[in-house]
Amino acid sequence: MKLRITHTLALAAIVATATFQLAAAEDIIIADFEGPDYGSWKASGDAFGSKPARGTLPGQMTVSGYEGKGLANSFNQGDDSTGTLISPEFRIQRPFIHFLIGGGKNPTKLSLSLVVDGKSVRTSTGPNDQAGGSEALALESWDVREFMGKDAAIQIIDDAKGGWGHINVDHIVQTERRAPQIQSNVQREFKITKQYLHLPIQNGAPKRLVTALVDGHVQVRNDVELANGKPDWWAPMDVSEWKGRSLTLQVDRLRDDSSALSSIHESDSIAGSESLYQEPLRGQFHFSPRRGWNNDPNGMVFFKGEYHLFFQHNPYGWGWGNMHWGHAVSKDLVHWTELGDKLAPDAYGPMFSGSAVVDWKNTSGLGKDGQAPLVLIYTAAGDPTVQCIASSLDGRHFQKFEGNPVIPQITGGNRDPKVMWHEPTQRWVMVLYVGFPGDKHTVYFFTSPNLRDWKHASTTEGMAKSGYLFECPDFFELAVDGNPANRKWVLAGANTEYGIGTFDGTRFTPEYSRLPGQRGRGFYAPQTFSDIPSSDGRRIQIGWFQTETKGMTFNQSMTIPLELNLISTSDGPRLTYTPVKELSALRSKSHRMSQRKLSAGGENPAQAVQAELMEIRAELEPGDAKEIALTVRGSAIVYDVSKQELSVNGHRVPAPLRGGKQRLTVFCDRTGLEVFASDGLTYVPMPFQPHPNDRNVWLGASGGTATASSFEIHELRSAWKSR
């Protein structure tokens, strides 16, 4: 017994010594790229520059996942630069080499290699070889036990050009620890019993290709930033159409210690739904999706008593990607109900922007039993990039046309079809952005008798190397000053510059070109509703409001609905923007102040008002004042009388007096302002996050005295809470 104890103690001592030795075998850093230059590493070519990059380089998507402040990033001077980076020789003293790697995928032209005895014995490359993707670096490793004691070097090579023609590398270390291994095409099967599968998302994680298969057939593929551990948020995947069936989720690459697949769970409600629409940075009267990213409004149409707003949506990420068509409806343009995604990526590619119409005469043959179909016209942005259609009889369920595509690729830059019915010629008209090399922007006009067969009718040129008529065209007719006998056509691009002219059913002839539209920031790709009843007669627009909401489970939003009109000016007809009248339904309490003089002292004209959400209307007479200033929750809105310019948070734009007065309307939400001046000739959207505790309004003048002939503050209720 004594001998056995002694033997046990001796064995324990040996184990303890071995453990101490293992603990003492600290990691050996080969490179962390934290220095002011590459040190003893040798750089050639121009891809890596003369020193490590400090994160993201000019023109590059946001780089994440690296350690410290620096990394080797071959995007210096863009994707077409090439070069190499070679380490000094080192001795392999640990069984594993770990590193962080990202960028383009090309094992022969974009590689991180271990060279022993003049030969490349281990090689890795980045994960991206398709448009989109992520600049996130991920941990990988090599097992180098067979080379222990040998001398080696590291080579980082960029010999690639074009899209994803670069590589990112950081934190190369020798270590005793085995890194998590990457498994390929990992699967989990689900018997669908509920509406949603909840996917764990980590913002900025490497994107993994997640494929949903039902009965062995691919239903949809998405690039998802899956969380290996605790997620930042849960993305709901609507699987209700497969209830009672088996669905398999397959992930192309997954760490063997990842809980991403095992943590996916079913539910009939969205995770976190108890706080939905109450989040700190949720716009309270600006539409935003429940989860994920949104950009362009799409398919805006009035159908069966509802306004339909489709939108570019990434349901599985906080940033752009995986373009679906999200869908929301409203009966009053104020209260929106999100219905889920209606167009998902397919074999033709992701679902890019487009429009919608009601085919009242069933020219397409997609109607049934006397019901006119709602038809979506969209870009499928694969290779090739083509135009397609889908239809619905109830505005809820959509079927993609079996004969897609309806227009083949013209160039790789053809997208964003806007379609309308032209009554005089009894034909459908499509305006389509078509880009050519050299930043040449054009709009193609097509005509069709049935929404399926299209013929190129004419081309309108944009301006080279500018934003005019670039992307997301819109085309509509308006009466000047409300006079039905004087109607003009408006052709606008994504940045809202527009032309005014005539249209004969085939060709647009501009009379005024490249006129400025909105004057603010963070406003892009607006679209107007089609098929609003003639008894209403309004042209209503919604734009993408670029309101970044870091830390939230959603990102971006839409502007308030805007009524567009053409009015006469000394320079010719011009567009005006005004908030739709329906927004007045949000007023919970109103404060109207009597006429008052404004001076340099200024005042809070509504000291009792402490509102988070506000609509402010003011009619101002400048008098001899040099400036009139309105402060709303810390945002400075200043009117320069002599220059007739309006400044919103330092952003200056023209705002002419109208009849000697300046009339201002301001809508203030948690994520932005929308400011209207000069009777709608000046519209200034402005992403802005006021401090939660700053709810003050201040009005004053400098350099003289002005008059506020009327001033109103309307406290607004949330559109989400007042359903």
Overall structural class, as computed from helix and strand content, comes to mainly beta
Question: Helical segment tally?
Answer: 1
> In total, how many beta strands?
54
**Large-scale geometry:** globular
Distance N terminus to C terminus? 81 Å
Strand residue content = over 45%
Report Rg. 30 Å
What is the arithmetic mean of pLDDT? 93
**Low-confidence runs of at least 5 consecutive residues:** 1-24
Helix percentage range: under 10%
- Quick one: biggest sheet? 7 strands, antiparallel
Q: What does this entry look like structurally?
A:
The protein is mainly β and 723 residues long. Strands 43, 44, 45, 50, 51, 52 and 54 form a seven-stranded antiparallel sheet that branches. Strands 2, 5, 6, 8, 9 and 12 form a six-stranded antiparallel sheet that branches. Strands 1, 4, 7, 11 and 13 form a five-stranded antiparallel sheet that branches. The chain is globular, with a radius of gyration of 30 Å. The termini are far apart.
What is shown here, in short?
The protein is mainly beta and 723 residues long.
Keywords, please?
single chain; 723 residues; mainly beta; 7-stranded antiparallel β-sheet; 6-stranded antiparallel β-sheet; disordered N terminus
Please outline the helices and strands:
Layout lengths: L1 H23 L3 E4 L10 E4 L17 E2 L7 E2 L9 E4 L3 E2 L4 E8 L6 E7 L2 E6 L10 E2 L1 E6 L7 E8 L8 E9 L6 E10 L4 E6 L6 E7 L2 E8 L8 E6 L7 E10 L9 E3 L24 E12 L2 E9 L9 E7 L6 E2 L12 E8 L15 E7 L5 E7 L6 E2 L12 E10 L4 E10 L3 E9 L6 E7 L12 E7 L2 E10 L5 E6 L4 E8 L7 E6 L10 E7 L8 E2 L1 E2 L3 E8 L2 E8 L7 E7 L2 E3 L15 E8 L5 E6 L2 E6 L4 E4 L2 E4 L7 E7 L3 E6 L4 E6 L9 E6 L3 E11 L7
Parallel strand pairs: 3-10, 21-39
Antiparallel strand pairs: 1-13, 2-5, 4-13, 5-12, 6-12, 7-11, 7-13, 8-9, 8-12, 14-19, 15-18, 15-20, 16-17, 16-19, 21-22, 22-23, 23-24, 25-26, 26-27, 27-28, 29-30, 30-31, 31-32, 33-34, 34-35, 35-36, 37-38, 38-40, 38-41, 41-42, 43-54, 44-54, 45-50, 45-54, 46-47, 46-53, 47-48, 48-49, 50-51, 51-52
